[in-house]
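User: I'm writing a tutorial on reading structure tokens. Could you give me a worked example: one chain, its sequence, then its tokens, then a sentence or two explaining what the tokens reveal?
Assistant: Sure. Here is the example chain.
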Amino acid sequence: MVTEPLTESAAVDLARGFKALGDPVRLRLLSLIAARAGAEVCVCDLTDAFEVTGPTISHHLKVLREAGLIDCERRGTWVYYWIIPSALGALSQLLDASTVTASAR
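And here are its predicted structure tokens:
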């Protein structure tokens, strides 16, 4: 991604992801979900890690979902979340400075 300029569409998509991660609660939520190594996590396992209300956690999870970083499925009264590796890969690839050559500095 750093070998050529981003298209306007790609920049909009990536900015949505970075904006979603700009909040400490959302960043921690994503980390807790990603720490399951691809497995899903119940929202009931996420809420106890924070000192905010359940509706606030739900809002932050919605922002992460709308940014395309996580997905979910409702099963009965609980919702289960998992990361979308390709979305996280695109964000990390943009920040990967190892692909920048010394001549580009």
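What the tokens reveal: Helices lie at 8-20, 24-34, 43-47, 54-66, 85-95. The radius of gyration is 16 Å.
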